[in-house]
Automatic annotation (TrEMBL):
Protein name per Swiss-Prot or TrEMBL: Right handed beta helix domain-containing protein
Lineage: Eukaryota, Metazoa, Porifera, Demospongiae, Heteroscleromorpha
Native organism: Amphimedon queenslandica
Segment forming the signal sequence: 1-19
Transmembrane segments: 723-746, 809-828, 835-855, 899-926, 960-981, 987-1007, 1019-1037, 1043-1066
Domain of life: Eukaryota
Keywords: Membrane, Signal, Transmembrane, Transmembrane helix
Length: 1130
């Protein structure tokens, strides 16, 4: 180290003849030659030094401002790589270096830390090989002939200001500012020139590289009408607020102009540079106060990429702008590029790529294109490639080409968009004799609405002369034509005429129009959008024309609607005139816009509507009285929340929803069974939409036209064949006989005591099926329940045209058919002994069983047949009431065909239901208290077998229990049948069921056993318990899916139990046959012998067991002579 220092000192002493001084905080430690002292000592008399070289060794501290004032040939140079000048931060005074009124000042190879450095009114300043660390003020005012090179700036602001000199020169002087090979971090460089013609300044920025953190401007050049030339080359800026800014400012009032010298054209050259990743923009050229026409910019071979807000901005506020030549530039991946109020921008071989908001937006500007200009993969709202606004133009040199490739506009003009509708924004430059037509190339451009390639631009024909390398151009303009149209046929069925419309107060006038603009030339048209002015003429306006409103029209056959003023009189014709709204002026051509006209008339409110206080048709009072009912006069629809029916009294008659009859009667009633439970919107002439399952007409009481009521459910369906009835009648006939024979053969009757609980469970489950689960049970399980309840259970068409009235008669037919079959069998058994021996003594119990099975079905059928509801009919000025059959409100109650059903249902109730209930319930009382009467005994002998069949399994004192089970069905039957809605009254129905079950359990517990056979008590309790669990789970759980699962589980348990009962009865019947008893006896005898053999085998020795092992290859012969024949069992 000492040898190196000595060598350096020797070389310097040989080269320099100036005075040499050494600066060090510790001269002895560094072996510095004399004179040597710290910098503070020299600073006290620094203005006395000239022609001096100060060599800095190590770190040197500055505690005050060191001012080199009026010095000459001063050099500050670092003697080694660690030469540092550091300042103590003192708020009371500036600390650092100042060079004023000096010349030939050099600052070399020194690191300046936390100091300020100011150069004022000095010349020949040289800074090289130095580091400026956190130098807040590196300011140079009127520093002439400055060379700043090979240095690094960190968090440093480098500012140059050039103004008029203190002493004016008589002749023009040339000075320079040269910045070369500078690297900056979080640094900005500002050069401001407002010296007018006091001197000529040459500015050069070469190989400048600045990286910031969005806090600095990077490079900013402030221009005025002064004499200078600027050259920026091989420069890059990154992550600053902006990359490169040129802004124009005013000259100072203090001037030092040289007589006879005027500012000439000033040139600014930027070349081979890169501006990327900046927060605001890549390059900004703007002026708001200075006429900048005396400047000329040459921007060559540059790239402006990935800036955050703008790429290129050229903005002048209504002032003349300089000539700007941009050549061989790549402007890509920026949000936007703007040129505002500038008419002298030349683009040559420029590529604008992947801009997010229009490749290039012009406003009040014109650009000239030489060679090629490419817009590729840019996007925007209006204009993906180029957007022309504020009377902007594009000037084309001979042979110029503009490529629009893959640009996308979310609205209009994928390639180019001209907002001012100038039609031809292109101006051509060049002589006619050597004129080479410019070329426009459109490829893969798209727009969200219209004009994939261009909007507002004419590309073919006079006065345009262009070569367009695309035969199928998608181009349009603002609207110049308008026609009425039909949706979907806008290009096929357009007309200028339309029929008169009839509307109602509050209803909108609707029509469809399509607008046309010019296509790629003036002789072709293409669909476009726009706005239409609606103008009305009406007697109320006293012949005046009133502009009513303006409506937008989309680029298709579009619906336009407006709501006329409520003051228009009903019955008067109103004339409508439609005009294309002109928001822009068309140049070059004159267009005669043709207006469209039509008429409309305001009629009285239609059925279901009346005029309210606002003069608008709304729901009539009888309709609006219900909650959540709304009416829409525009769509002629009514809406409500469901479970309600609104319509006319004669709902089956067809009429037009536009009719306005005053004598139509309206019904507005709850409809809780067959109406949709959710919100519904419908028209007053199509009330069937309020109904479920293909039902319709008044209160959804019947099927829609063409549908028939199905057996097995209350739904309506289509019947394809009229021969279904023959097949079903035959099937029912066979099923009835089969069912009776099945009961007789198995003795599956109430006299056995196994069916009381089972039938009670099956009857209640059938009643409560919609309460337990909105979804039907599994088919196999539900079918068993249906058959036990004498229902078909399968949804099918019985015959075409079947309605509820016919189905209700069928509900009576099948039970009576079963009775007839068993009565015939009973009569045949009494007359013919063979038949009696065949069926045995089971016929009367089977009849009792069928009566028991039919009891619930007949009660339900009778109650439904007798059920009535009253509906209110609202007519004009009159309100009446009508009684209808609840199950089918299209049928009047007790009149017409319902009268026969009503009488028959009463007879069934009087002749069967009431006597049968009293007989089974009170038979023990009848037998006890009336047995002494001979007349009673005569008839009682006929009835007693039926009573004994029901009460035979019971203990003598509980022979009334079957009657109790019959009566227990009544509250649940009546509540389920008469309730308005299973959904709304679900909890109520379940509570009734649980109450009845609780009473039955209590009575059974109090009586301590009702049946002679204890197993029958257990079996009945088992069915009641299963039903109780099901009802309790339905009350507890609100999750319908869980309830449905448990419902099917309960049915599964019931089905298994029923199968066990059938097996038991089959076993009991087979015991009457000798062969079956013999078979059972033989099995009982074989079982002890087999057990004895197994016991003997268990005591064999191991050797004996091994001998009995049969080899796998041994052939075994089995003797069949001892096996008994199956036929001999019979």
């Amino acid at each position: 180290m000492h040898l190196l220092l000595a060598t350096a000192l020797f070389v310097i002493s040989c080269k320099l003849s100036s005075a040499q001084y050494y600066v060090s905080e510790n001269c002895a430690a560094h072996n510095a030659p004399l004179p040597c002292d710290n910098f503070s000592e020299y600073a006290e008399h620094i203005d006395e030094y000239s022609n001096a070289v100060f060599y800095f060794i190590g770190t040197n501290y500055v505690r005050s401002l060191v001012n080199f004032c009026e010095t000459d040939n001063i050099t500050l140079e670092g003697l080694d790589q660690n030469a540092v000048i550091a300042c103590y931060d003192d708020d009371e005074e500036d600390v650092g270096l100042a060079i004023t009124e000096s010349s030939h000042f050099s600052f070399n190879s020194i690191s300046l830390y936390n100091c300020k450095m100011v150069v004022m009114n000095s010349s020949n300043i040289s800074i090289t090989g130095s580091l400026f660390y956190e130098v807040d003020d590196l300011d140079m005012k009127n520093a002439l002939d400055v060379s700043f090179s090979h240095s690094i700036l960190y968090k440093t602001s480098l500012y140059f200001l050039y103004t008029a000199l203190k002493e004016c020169n008589s002749e023009l002087q040339n000075y320079s500012l040269s910045l070369f090979n500078l690297s900056g971090i979080n640094t900005d460089i500002v050069v401001a020139m407002i010296h007018s013609t006091a001197y000529n300044l040459s500015v050069s920025l070469d190989h400048i590289n600045i990286t910031s953190n969005y806090t600095t401007e990077n490079i900013k050049i402030k221009l005025s009408n002064s004499m200078y030339s600027i050259r920026i080359a091989d420069t890059s800026t990154y992550n600053g607020r902006s990359g490169l800014i040129f802004s124009f400012i005013r000259d100072l009032e203090e001037r030092c102009d040289i007589a006879g010298i005027d500012p000439s054209l000033q040139s600014v050259i930027v070349k081979d540079s890169h501006f990327y990743g900046n927060a605001i923009c890549g390059i900004l050229i703007d002026s708001t106060i200075v006429n900048s026409r005396l400047h000329e910019f040459f921007i060559q071979s540059i790239s402006i990429t990935n800036n955050s807000y703008f790429g290129l901005i050229v903005a002048f506020d209504f002032l003349t702008c300089p000539e700007i030549h941009i050549e061989n530039a790549n402007i890509s991946h920026n949000p936007r590029n703007w040129i505002y109020n500038c008419d002298s921008v030349l683009l040559s071989n420029v590529r604008i790529i992947e801009t997010l908001s229009t490749g290039l937006a012009l406003k009040g500007s014109s650009i000239a294109v030489k060679n090629s200009l490419v817009f590729m993969n840019n996007s925007g709202v209006n204009g993906g490639g180029v957007s022309l606004n504020g009377s902007s133009f594009i000037l084309l040199f001979p042979g110029a080409s503009i490529d629009f490739i893959g640009n996308r506009a979310s609205n209009k003009g994928g390639g180019i968009y001209n907002s001012e509708h100038i039609l031809c924004p292109f101006i051509f430059l060049g002589e006619e004799e050597d004129f080479v037509l410019p070329v426009l190339n459109f490829q893969d451009n798209s727009a969200g609405t219209i004009g994939n390639d261009s909007y507002g631009v004419i590309l073919f024909g006079e006065p345009v002369q262009l070569v367009v390398n695309e035969t199928d151009i998608s181009s349009t303009t603002d609207a110049v034509r308008m026609h009425f149209c039909e949706p979907g046929l806008e290009n096929e069925n357009t007309t200028n005429l339309m029929d008169k419309q009839n509307i109602f107060p509050g209803q909108k006038v609707e029509f469809y129009v399509t607008m046309l603009g010019f296509g790629a030339n003036l002789s072709a048209y293409s669909t476009t959008d726009g706005s239409v002015d609606i103008i009305l003429r009406h007697p109320n306006y006293e012949g005046q024309t009133i502009k009513f409103e303006t409506q937008p029209v989309a680029a298709s056959c579009s619906k336009v609607e407006f709501l006329p003023d409520a003051s228009l009189l009903i019955g008067d014709d109103t004339e409508v005139e439609l005009q294309i709204r002109q928001t822009k002026e068309l140049n070059l051509i004159n267009i005669d816009y043709e207006a469209l006209q039509f008429q409309f008339i305001v009629n009285q409110c239609p059925i279901g509507f009346s005029m309210n206080e606002s003069g608008i048709c709304d729901c009539t009072e009888n309709i609006s009285s219900a909650k959540n009912v709304t009416c829409d006069i525009n769509n002629l629809t009514l809406s409500h929340n469901g479970l309600r029916w609104i319509g006319t009294h004669n709902a089956g008659e067809s009429f037009n929803a536009n009719d306005s009859h005053s004598d139509v009667c309206i019904i507005n009633e709850h409809c809780l069974v067959y109406c949709i439970p959710s919100s519904i919107t419908f028209m007053i002439n199509d009330t069937n939409n309020q109904c479920t399952n293909n039902r319709g007409q008044r209160l959804c009481g019947s099927c829609r036209e063409g549908y028939s009521l199905l057996i097995g459910s209350n739904n309506c369906g289509l019947c394809d064949s009229k021969y279904f009835i023959i097949a079903w009648v035959a099937l029912f006939a066979v099923m009835g006989i089969a069912m009776v024979v099945f009961l007789i053969l198995l003795n599956l009757t109430v006299s056995q005591g196994t069916l009381n609980g089972l039938l009670f469970y099956a009857n209640i489950i059938k009643l409560y099926e919609p309460v337990f689960s909105r979804e039907r049970a599994l088919p196999a399980l539900g079918q068993v329940i249906s058959w036990i309840n004498l229902d078909f259970g399968i949804e099918a068409c019985f015959y075409k045209g079947m309605d509820r009235y016919a189905k209700e008669w069928l509900q009576f037919v099948f039970p009576f058919y079963l009775w007839i079959i068993i009565i015939i069998i009973i009569l045949l058994c009494r007359r013919y002994g063979k038949i009696s021996r065949l069926f045995g003594s089971n016929t009367v119990p089977v009849l009792c069983t069928l009566l028991f099975l039919s009891y619930s079905k007949l009660i339900r059928t009778v109650v439904i047949a007798l059920d009535r509801r009253d509906i209110t009919i609202h007519c004009t000025g009159n309100v009446t009431s009508l009684s209808v059959w609840y199950e089918d409100p299209t049928v009047e109650y007790g009149k017409g065909k319902h009268a026969a059903l009503f009488v028959f249902a009463l007879l069934v109730m009087i002749l069967f239901i009431v006597p049968y209930t009293c007989l089974i319930l009170f038979s023990p009382l009848f037998e006890k208290h009336m047995s002494n009467y001979k007349m009673f005994n005569k008839y009682w002998s006929w009835i007693k077998p039926i009573v004994d069949a029901h009460s035979g399994p019971m203990k003598d004192k509980y022979r009334f229990w079957p009657g109790v089970l019959l009566v227990a069905r009544l509250p649940m039957l009546l509540s389920v049948i008469l309730v308005d809605s299973y959904i709304l009254r679900r909890l109520y129905l379940l509570c009734i069921l649980l109450t009845v079950l609780a009473i039955l359990f209590s009575l059974g517990y109090c009586f301590g056993g009702l049946y002679r056979n204890k197993r029958h008590d257990f079996l009945e309790a088992w069915f009641l318990f299963n039903l109780s669990i099901m009802a309790s789970l339905a009350v507890i759980s609100n999750d319908t899916s869980i309830v449905a699962i448990w419902f099917n589980i309960s049915l599964g348990i019931f089905t298994v139990t029923f199968a066990v009962i059938i097996h038991y009865h089959l076993h009991q019947q087979l015991l009457h046959h000798t062969w079956y008893r013999s078979l059972l006896r033989r099995k009982k005898q074989e079982k002890p012998k087999q057990e004895e053999k197994e016991e003997i085998k268990t005591h064999k020795t191991v050797d004996a067991q091994k001998r009995e092992i049969v080899p796998r290859t041994t052939n075994i012969r089995i003797n069949h002579h001892g096996r008994e024949s199956v036929i001999e069992l019979y």
